[in-house]
Amino acid sequence: MLNNDLNPQYVRGVLDAEGCFHISHSKYHSNRTSFRMANKNLAFLNMLKDFFQEGYVYENAHGTYKDVHEFVMQSKNQLRILLAFFEENGDPIIKQTNRPRNRNKTTTYQDWKRETISYINKNSSLSIRYSEDIKKKAIVLYTNGKTLKEISETLGPSTASIHKWVNE
Rounded CA gap, 148 and 153, in Å? Predict the structure, then answer.
């Protein structure tokens, strides 16, 4: 259920213009998808989180850019909500995504949507359990100044998992 404080068409336009539909690959999981939006306006990102009543807002998420925050939707439930939102309000017009391991390949929103539906429909009992060693490495990297995104791309766990481990 969406919070109606923002106009859905405005939100759709902002997500289309500023968001990143991301498909990641690692040795721990394949074709895991997420939606990310970086912005300096922390209050606006929190408004998006409130609008969807889901997602995460990471403050100072990008180590190389000062005061840049990130709104992320990546759990299966969050992705279901995002897909339903676009289904109801219209798909992004011309959206390309990035594929970190194959930067020369352009991925469309339709590719992302297909991969996301596949990811959501995977048997949830097959969820990955990370070893204590991976958790400790992630915490050390975070303590040494690496961003959640950099750690996630290096070790494989989601930024949400790493955030949880750091705060435990």
Answer: 9
